[in-house]
Task: structure prediction
Amino acid sequence: MTKSVAREPLRRNSRSNRARILATAREELGRNPDVTLEELARAAGVVRRTLFGHFPGRAALLEALAEEAAETLRNTVESGSEPEPEESAERALARFVFRMWPVGDRYRMLLALARRDLGSERVAEVLAPAREAATGILERGQRDGVFHSHLPPAVQSAGLEAMHVALLESVNTGALEDDGHRIATATLIAAGVAETRASAVVEEVASEMGATPADEV
Result:
């Protein structure tokens, strides 16, 4: 009994260290994609041996971040998978962007590392749930005549995703600050919604979700 009680604080401490290392990695890799594991250990307030005990190398750390991102993305998509009754596709797309933007913002450092360290196949696995959900919304919007239909829904979704990646990279460089309002409006316009209508829909959905424009914070 004594040994069991003694092991529990050790396990809790280990989980705490791991979570702190991952949180530090998200922040530090966002600033410098080439930061070393030794530098990450110092920033996380742990000794080098502790970091390597959880992540024996850079690849293991990045894979842990990718899995964390994938789980967060899956949970976010699943929690919003039931659309409101009779909700239009344009409102559904705006709501989807508002839900996804914080996830993308949290893990935007992976964008700088994705192709170089994770590989395109792993990135595709991480993004698959969001891609499927977005494609479904776009397909419905095209069917209802809300979005333009000169591109197949999956291709249109890929194009919008590329735009989101570019905007997240702009956040990385400090060229853009956004809480989701600008990207949601840009997404609706790119999908084929008139600018005035897109802005009105975004503000309507944002109000319902309790989102405040960045310039009003």
Summary: The two ends are 53 Å apart (CA to CA). The chain has a mean pLDDT of 84. The CA atoms of residues 71 and 150 lie 33 Å apart. DSSP finds ten helices and no strands in the chain.
